[in-house]
Amino acid sequence: MSTTVRAAGTVLWRRAADGGIEVALIHRPRYDDWSLPKGKLKRGEDHAAAAVRETREETGVECVLGTPLPAAHYWTAGRPKEVRYWAAEAPSGPAAPPFSPNDEVDRVAWLAPEAARRRLTHDRDRELITALLGTLAD
What we know:
- By secondary structure, this protein is an alpha+beta fold.
- It has a single domain (5-137), classed as Nucleoside Triphosphate Pyrophosphohydrolase.
- It is built from three helices and seven strands.
- Strands 1, 2, 3, 4, 5, 6 and 7 form a seven-stranded mixed sheet that branches.
- Strand 5 (64-76) and strand 6 (79-89) form a beta hairpin.
- Helix 2 (113-119) packs antiparallel against helix 3 (123-137).
- It is globular, with a radius of gyration of 14 Å.
């Protein structure tokens, strides 16, 4: 039996200048895809800590976790994977350090929710934008 890969991530958002919101997407050159910040848990790490760490590593943003969002379940490299997600707000105030491209993530894009839905590569990620909007409307 395959061991489930445990991972965590965020739907990172911030207030836009027009009063709406923007969502952060990352581009991973290894897969040439646009996705949400996420990654595997380190030994002894809980899901929430992993979500914050992965978001910081992949976007440069020190986020504040909000409401848990639906988890994603899928298969990768012949193993089941579970990714637990949270809504996560990018703090306002002084600008975060600029994003530094690396081998894992070469671009970050801040987009309005509908534009983010269109750019995302995987349908499972699009559903999380809908979940975020529902959470913010409550």
